[in-house]
Design goal:
The active site is at residues 125, 168, 265. Belongs to the DNA repair enzymes AP/ExoA family. Keywords: Hydrolase, Magnesium, Manganese, Metal-binding. The record marks 170 as: Transition state stabilizer. Its cofactor is Mn(2+); Mg(2+). By secondary structure, the chain is α+β, with helices and mostly antiparallel strands. The protein has a single domain, classed as Deoxyribonuclease I, Chain A, CATH 3.60.10. Helix content is 21%, strand content 25%. It is built from seven helices and 14 strands. The longest helix is centred in the middle third of the chain and has 20 residues, at 139-158. It is globular and about 45 Å long.
């Protein structure tokens, strides 16, 4: 089964649109060798968050660490070669926060919260619930992390800011969001307690931007590297852009780009009216 053609929504890209992209790059140094720099230059993004960079900034080549025409910021894990997030933006962020306030979370380098005018963009690499033996032993940590991020972005939302939370959530929310739900009910990423945590976000008013505009099946953002899962489109939708309710009036398009190679994930994103940045 070929990946379905992505639905176009509302309006096309224009000079008054702000394009925000998210991509679990599965190792930024490896991605750089596969053409990440060329993709970044041509993607049309204004703000690009990447997850699982697995590198310290000083380990990156200059073109990746500080590409021409971009402002960049990285948050790495304490542990070498693990986790980490990066943010590229055409305009500099007014402020970037990188801590949840607990060492057990902050040491893994999973969060960047960048303010651009009245818009806050949280670039987050949510944990996988699998332990070393794929025994779901990290699920309690994962759920605690979800709740800590939720509390942080809720504070920004209550402060009157417009908020996007984007990244690899490591959870497929509904059965429609993975190709084989029945076979994965005991697998981290589709456990009832993980899905309930996403339910809690939606009940609180957060908008799954892609699903709000595309109700159909067959849209995924991650595929196993074993066999031909990607070619057959046997995947999971675990990469999201969630929006606070006050972003909805500015939402023009939400999309997934399964045709982009270079990682076991593909980019996802939204296009917004640039007025989303305006204060007042």
């Amino acid at each position: 089964m070929a990946p379905p053609k992505q639905r176009k929504t509302k309006t096309k890209t224009s000079s008054d649109a702000l394009t925000v992209l998210s991509w679990n790059i599965n190792g930024l140094r490896a991605a750089a060798k596969k053409g990440f720099g060329a993709w970044l230059a041509e993607c049309g993004g204004d703000i690009v968050g990447v997850q699982e960079i697995r590198a310290f900034k000083e380990q990156l080549d200059d073109a990746t660490a500080e590409p021409e025409g971009w402002h960049s910021h990285f948050r790495s894990a304490v542990r070498p070669g693990y986790s980490g997030v990066g943010l590229y933006s055409r305009a500099p962020a007014d402020k970037v926060e990188v801590e949840l306030g607990e060492a057990r979370f902050d040491d893994e380098g999973r969060v960047q919260l960048a303010r651009f005018g009245r818009l806050f963009v949280a670039n987050v690499y949510f944990p996988n619930g699998n332990g070393r033996d794929r025994d779901n032993s990290r699920v309690p940590y994962k759920l605690d992390f979800y709740r800590a991020v939720f509390e942080l972005v809720e504070r920004k939302r209550r402060g009157g800011y417009r908020v996007l939370v984007m990244g690899d959530f490591n959870t497929a929310h509904e059965a429609i969001d993975l190709a084989r739900p029945k076979q994965n009910v005991k697998t981290s990423g589709f456990l009832p307690e993980e899905r309930e945590e996403l339910d809690r976000w939606i009940r609180a008013g957060w908008i799954d931007t892609f699903r709000s505009l595309e109700p159909g099946p067959g849209h995924y953002s991650w595929w196993s590297q074993r066999g031909t899962a990607r070619e057959r489109n046997v995947g999971w939708r675990i990469d999201y852009v969630l929006a606070s309710p006050n972003v909805e009036p500015f939402l023009r398009e939400a999309f997934i780009w399964p045709e982009v190679p270079g990682s076991d994930h593909c980019p996802v994103g939204v296009r917004l009216d640039r007025a989303v940045l305006a204060r007042g």
